[in-house]
Amino acid sequence: MERVPVLKIGDILLVSIQLDMSDQTAIQLQDDLAERIVATGCHGVIIDITALDIVDSFVGRMLSTIASISKVLDAETVVVGMRPAVAITLVELGLSLNGIRTALNVERGMELIAATRPDDQGYDVDDEADDETTATT
Amino acid sequence: MALNAEESGRLAGLLSEHAERVTQRWTEIATGSLRGRLSQAELRRQVQELHRSMVEAGRNGVFDLESESAGELRAVLAELSRGRARQGFTATETAVSVYAVKDVLLELMEADGGDASLRDYVAFSSLVDQMGLFTFESFVRTREGLIADQAEQLLELSTPVVKIWEGVVAVPLVGTLDSARAQVVMERLLQTLVDTGSPYAIIDITGVPAVDTQVAQHILKTVVAARLMGADCIISGIRPQIAQTIVALGIEFGDIATKASLADALRHVLRLSGAANARRPPRRES
Fold it and tell me: What CATH number should be reported for the domain holding residue A118?
C-alpha cells in the first residue's frame, strides 16, 4: 500500500500529497501524522496539495479531520498550494473547508505558522528537547 | 414555391430581354429606400450582379432558391446582406432592395399584357419573396455573428488583473457582472494569485452599475475560492447607492472586509501585511 511521507522541517511537519487519495491512504496518513506530532513535538503541520487535481468531499473531510486531530495535539494545520480549478470546484460544491487555514505556497504557510506562534521562538525551556532536535538535524 | 421550367424560362427571358431597363428601374426604386447612404454606382453594381445571377438561374430550368442551380444567386444575396449588415443598414432597407424587382416585373408585364401574365406574376413574386426572406436570414446571421464577436472581445478586454503593490493584486470590475464574466474574473484572479504568489487581492466594484443578489453571490464565491487558496480578498469601491442596495437586499458580506475606495483598501492591506511582517519574528540562524 502507498504511504504519504511526513517530513520534519524545523518545528514543522510537511506532508506533500503526490498521489490520488484512497480511503486506506487517508486513514494511514491520519495515523502517521498523529504519531509523528506526538513523537516530534512539532507545533505546525503543512499539507501541500499542489499536485492534487481533484479534491472531493472525501479529501475535504480528511483535511478537516487532520486539522482537528492536530489541534487537539496543539499543532497548527495549514493547507497550501490549492489550485484555482480545485478552489472553484469546491466553492461550486458548497464546500468551504471551514476551520482549515490556507496559504498560497509552502513558504507562506511556514510564515503563517511562525506568525501564529510568536512566543515559541527563541524561548527554550527544555534543554533535553533542544538536544534532541540538534541531534536529528 | 418553385417555378417550373416554363415559368423560369419566361422569367429569364423577360429579365434578359429588357436587361438595361430592368436594372435601371430596379436601381431607381432601391435608391429611394436607401436615402442616399449607398452610392448610385455601388447599388447599380449590386443590382446588376443580382440580375445576372437571376437570369442564370432561370435559364438552368426549374427555378427554386433551395436548388443547386440557384447556388450563385444565394451567394450573391448572402454577400449583399452581409455587406449591408456591416454598413449598418436596417433589415427592411436590405430586403427592399430585393423586393424592388417585383415592381419592375409588374411594369414590364403590364406593358406586355397577355393572359398568363397574372399567374406568372404571382409565381415570380413568390420567388422574390423567398429571396427576400433569404436575405433577411443572412442579414440576421451576420448581425448575430457581430454581436457574438463583440461579446467575446468585451469579455477579454474588461477583466484585467493588475498588481498594485508587492503581494497585492487588484481587479477593477467594469460593467455588468453576469455568470460568464464572473467565471472569467474568478479564474483570472485565482490564476494570478498563484502566478504572483500574492496573498492579498482587492476586488474594486466602482465600475459595476448595479449590485443585485446574483452579482453579490458571484463576488462572494470568488472571495471564498481565494480564501481556500490562502489569499485574502477585500471588496472596495462601494458607492453610496450600492451600499444602500446591499443593505436593502439583505446581502451579508460576513467577515469580508469592505472599503469605500481602492485607496482605503490598499491602506488596509498594507497595514495587515505590515502587521504580519512585524509579528513575524526574526529568523534564528543556527
Answer: 3.30.750.24
> Is the pTM here over 0.80, yes or no?
no
B223 at interface of A, judged by CB pairs closer than 8 A: no
ipTM beyond 0.90?
Answer: no
Chain B residues with CB under 8 Å of A108 CB are 197, 199, 230
**Alpha-carbon distance values, B174 to A57, B203, B224 (Å):** 35, 11, 21
A87 touches chain B (CB under 8 A): yes
Identity at B143, one-letter amino acid code: R
Whether B254 and chain A come into contact, CB under 8 Å, resolves to no
The domain that contains B178 carries what CATH number? Answer: 3.30.750.24
Whether residues B195 and B230 share a domain: the answer is yes
Instruction: Label the pairing between strands B232-236 and B257-258.
Output: parallel
- Please check whether residues B132 and B39 belong to one and the same domain: yes
Interface test with A, best of B229, B256, B286 (most A CBs within 10 A): B229
Count: domains in chain B: 2
pLDDT of residue B266: 92
Q: Is residue B118 part of a domain?
A: yes
Output the average pLDDT for chain A. Answer: 82
- Chain A hits for B198, CB-CB cut-off 8 Å, are 104
What residues in B contact A86, CB-CB < 8 Å? Answer: 228
Beta-strand (E) ranges in chain A? Answer: 6-9, 12-16, 44-48, 76-80, 101-103
Residue B184: count of CB within 10 angstroms of its CB = 14
Domain hosting residue B81, numbered range: 5-155
Q: Does B231 touch chain A (CB under 8 A)?
A: yes
